[in-house]
């Protein structure tokens, strides 16, 4: 495995690929370095990264989303890189547009994830995020996402239409709720082998037979947006989201933490006595009291308590399940 790093610099975003070297360390492979220029010198930049096998060859592709926010306006651009003999080649790039029927939504703050959304055994690139960044209780944030496959001509939709929802947070805030971050996740929430899609606190499933998306659950907005009774800004400095089977039921969980939180919330699908699944809170992990700043979540099986080995048909490999959540709370 290589390590991919995205550096936000004054004039650009630089992608570095770090390769293992003989002494056990890592070194930058200069052939693979990529740069994306800033479009607005006054903007605030955030990025999203994902890697996976998007074209069924013998190596992974790299997806990058670059967000620029300035004066309450947002622009999200995607870049997909394919490995070439002498480095990385740009396979496709552009704005993130989500189509549904005769309507189209341009994502203002985006993110990316990779999973098998349409259950065809191939990895899809999920591009999505929020449609409006400066919102309030009467004008709630809207979320949207589409699934794409990589072809010789670039990205093409894996499914005809995208997912879309009015992500109302049901608040009484007199001030704005500024959405400055999008967290897009691909997770197998129901254990059926294909990926559901989460955009911030809204979770969707794609029905391959019917060719349509359905909303299967929402995280509690009062905990995902803890400032909902006053002006609040959601960004990557006060919130983080991760995916992993931390409850060891062979179904992915959605884990998140926000600033001032006393717990890390674990949400996912739970089975009742009859085996029917419903989406809700599965666990809460206490954290130290006080202000949480710049939280970082990463699932990892650090205690090796019960490895489970399963086959992932979309990735053509065996994978380990049941990670243990690691939180870095600065």
Main pleated-sheet profile: 5 strands, antiparallel
Average pLDDT figure: 83
The DSSP helix count reads 1
The counted number of beta strands is 30
Strand residue percentage: over 45%
* Share of helical residues: under 10%
Shape: globular
Can you tell me the residue ranges where pLDDT is under 50 for at least 5 consecutive residues?
A: none
Structural category: mainly beta
Q: Using the CA coordinates, give the radius of gyration.
A: 19 Å
Distance between the termini: 27 Å
What does this structure look like?
There is one protein chain. By secondary structure, the protein is mainly β. The chain has one helix spanning 221-224; strands at 3-8, 12-20, 26-28, 34-37, 44-52, 61-70, 73-84, 87-95, 97-100, 103-106, 109-115, 124-130, 134-135, 142-151, 154-157, 163-166, 177-179, 184-187, 196-199, 202-207, 212-218, 232-234, 239-244, 253-258, 263-271, 277-286, 296-300, 308-312, 317-321, 324-328. Strand 14 (142-151) and strand 15 form a beta hairpin. It is globular.
Structural descriptors:
30 strands, 55% strand, 330 residues, globular
Blueprint (SSEs and pairs):
Elements lengths: L2 E6 L3 E9 L5 E3 L5 E4 L6 E9 L8 E10 L2 E12 L2 E9 L1 E4 L2 E4 L2 E7 L8 E7 L3 E2 L6 E10 L2 E4 L5 E4 L10 E3 L4 E4 L8 E4 L2 E6 L4 E7 L2 H4 L7 E3 L4 E6 L8 E6 L4 E9 L5 E10 L9 E5 L7 E5 L4 E5 L2 E5 L2
Parallel strand pairs: 17-22
Antiparallel strand pairs: 1-2, 2-3, 2-4, 5-6, 6-7, 7-8, 9-10, 11-12, 12-14, 13-17, 14-15, 14-16, 18-19, 19-20, 20-21, 23-24, 24-25, 25-26, 27-30, 28-29
């Amino acid at each position: 495995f290589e390590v991919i790093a995205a550096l936000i610099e004054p004039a650009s975003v630089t992608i570095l690929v770090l390769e293992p070297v003989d002494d056990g360390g890592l070194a930058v492979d200069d052939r693979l370095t990529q740069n994306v220029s800033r479009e607005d010198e006054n903007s605030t930049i955030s990025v999203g990264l994902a890697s996976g096998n998007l074209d069924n060859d013998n190596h992974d592709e790299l997806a990058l989303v670059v967000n620029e926010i300035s004066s309450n306006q947002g622009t999200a651009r995607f870049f997909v890189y394919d490995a070439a003999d002498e480095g990385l080649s740009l396979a496709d790039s552009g704005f993130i547009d989500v189509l549904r029927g005769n309507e189209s939504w341009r994502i203002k703050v985006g993110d990316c994830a990779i999973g098998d959304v349409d259950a065809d055994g191939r990895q899809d690139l999920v591009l999505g995020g929020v449609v409006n960044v400066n919102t309030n209780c009467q004008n709630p944030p809207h979320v949207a996402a589409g699934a794409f496959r990589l072809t010789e001509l670039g990205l093409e939709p894996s499914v005809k239409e995208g997912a879309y929802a009015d992500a109302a947070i049901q608040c009484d805030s007199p001030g704005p709720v500024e959405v400055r971050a999008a967290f897009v996740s691909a997770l197998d929430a129901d254990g059926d082998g294909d990926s559901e899609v989460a955009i911030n606190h809204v979770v969707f499933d794609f029905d391959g037979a019917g060719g349509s998306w359905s909303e299967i659950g929402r995280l509690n907005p009062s905990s995902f947006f803890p400032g909902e009774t006053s002006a609040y800004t959601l960004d990557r400095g006060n919130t983080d989201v991760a995916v992993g089977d931390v409850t060891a039921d062979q179904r992915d969980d959605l884990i998140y933490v926000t600033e001032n939180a006393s717990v890390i919330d674990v949400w996912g699908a739970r089975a009742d006595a009859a085996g029917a699944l419903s989406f809700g809170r599965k666990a809460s992990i206490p954290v130290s009291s006080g202000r949480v700043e710049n939280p970082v979540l990463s699932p990892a099986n650090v205690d090796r308590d019960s490895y489970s080995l399963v086959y992932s048909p979309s990735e053509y490999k065996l994978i380990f399940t049941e990670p243990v959540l690691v939180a870095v709370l600065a």
